[in-house]
């Protein structure tokens, strides 16, 4: 049987199939671009810094003048308090002129290390230098007023320095978790200050006269209440960033005025009114080195 050539070709030829491709767009994964926030102070914050700077300067001059009106044996509180406002004056001058501030970046992300926000906020680091120098002096005023022993004074001043430095580390941390960890350490150090001043201080002042006891109770309570507001301001400003930079400046300005010039005038005016019962420091503080045992110029000459 002969098979026609055309039929053979149809049987032997390979079967070709054609597929129809439907062009459906393939979804692409585009990484989310983190939001960047810039937080700066305005003219309101700048003027506030200058106002506090001037007030600190005037208070310092007043405290030095008050020191000159009392005998040198009774000037310890005056000198320490004047140093507090003088340091604050220099700090606010630095911040007002832009020398004590820098732009700090905080990265906010998810647990999967996906960055969602980047916050660039002004941090006034000069403020922390101020606090590192002035708050131990302020605690020294209160400790001497209460009559705390040297060991307790050393502990309370060290706790204060730890509190301020850990607060600075919290402000300069680049991640929120790290920042709040340093903040927790600062709060623990502050609790020790409350214990030393509130408990041991009241125990030490119990042996003093009634007027001193009442005065220490009032001014120490005033100070601790003010100091409790500082970490609250930090938490809502630098920490959670619920308050803008101007609000942060104004809040700290009010607290600093109350904690330094107002505290200082209250302390010194009351101290001067209690001149008879206030402590008097002699020795090296008032008279310098004793002339006994010192070498005089005449002794260097020979017996010619």
Automatic annotation (TrEMBL):
Pfam families: Bac_rhodopsin. It is a multi-pass membrane protein. One of its GO terms (biological process) is phototransduction. CDD domains: 7tm_Opsin-1_euk. GO terms for molecular function: monoatomic ion channel activity; photoreceptor activity. It comes from the Eukaryota. The chain crosses the membrane at residues 48-67, 76-95, 153-174, 180-198, 214-237, 249-269. It is found in: Membrane. Its main location: membrane. GO terms for cellular component: endoplasmic reticulum; plasma membrane. Keywords: Chromophore, Membrane, Photoreceptor protein, Receptor, Retinal protein, Sensory transduction, Transmembrane, Transmembrane helix. InterPro entries: Arc/bac/fun_rhodopsins, Rhodopsin_retinal_BS. Belongs to the archaeal/bacterial/fungal opsin family. PANTHER family: BACTERIORHODOPSIN _OPSIN, NOPA (EUROFUNG) (PTHR28286:SF2), PTHR28286. This is Opsin-1. It comes from Xylaria arbuscula.
